[in-house]
């Protein structure tokens, strides 16, 4: 028996050594591949944009514009007046309604972390019916959602100069600037920015950011553009590429920093995208977290609507040759919430 145990131990040791060897070789191979991968190079305008970005921190702030400093403010959503809503509804011509949200993720993937799984638990099933429970951490790369002022801070302050201290707690969540600001829903004009069509591709290369020149070229091509209180929806073909090549993370054809002055000039209510709004990777911007998120949420009071599924919208818009339409959505009215999953609807 003792000899048999010794034999098993030796075999186990040899197997372990073999496994370690394989893992070492695999690790070395991965390291070699990583070493051969091209390192992203900062575009030539990076240094100039970073200098401008520091100026924009003060020049582009809209603090105090729609509410006294330190008080609750709905930011550029204030530009969605009753008259604007009434005029926007005139865009409905065909009665076609399109959902802009992807099915909630229920399996882990490259762009779905464990916390981002939408847990749906079906409870006891009886002759009379059943119930279920939902749980999700919606901030991230997959769930269609909105962010609020409570999501991003700078120097201990939220949008409109609201101090984070005593305003955001683990017990109460966010007091001023929570998702309750939008509990009445959002209905306004939206404009599709079909960058894939502009560039003549199925989807935009995830490593290539979308610039102001791209946005303005699309405006010229389509004949429509956003104005105050509108919502641009940036289409890069994220979900089409995901279906063809599988999920990925780390590369996003998001809004480039030279679009920030465009946002400030136009004052949209929300900035929309079918992925995260910030471009990535960001060589030359190391040490700075999500520059577009910060500029929109913290300085300008422009909210964010991201991780949308715009595939059906794009198909409909191209068929109708109409790139402006009504958009409507409402968050879950969660007191203290820093955002909410949403299922926006486009109406043609």
Mean pLDDT: 89
Helix content: 25-40%
Q: What's the architecture of the largest domain, going by CATH?
A: 3-Layer(bba) Sandwich
> What is the count of helical runs?
9
Quick rundown:
With 348 residues, this protein is α+β, with helices and mostly antiparallel strands. It has 9 helices and 13 strands.
In words, what does this structure look like?
There is one protein chain. The protein is an alpha+beta fold and 348 residues long. The chain folds into 3 domains: 1-34; 46-102 and 144-347, Glucose Oxidase, domain 1, CATH 3.50.30; 108-143, no CATH class. 31% of the residues lie in helices and 15% in strands. The chain is built from 9 helices and 13 strands. The protein has helices at residues 2-36, 46-59, 82-88, 195-199, 212-222, 238-245, 260-266, 291-300, 311-320; strands spanning 97-99, 119-122, 132-135, 145-147, 168-169, 173-174, 186-194, 231-235, 270-273, 303-306, 324-329, 339-341, 345-347. A 9-stranded mixed sheet has the order 1-13-11-7-8-9-10-4-12, with helices on both faces. The chain is globular, with a radius of gyration of 24 Å. It starts with a helix and ends with a strand. Residues 1-35 have low confidence and may be disordered.
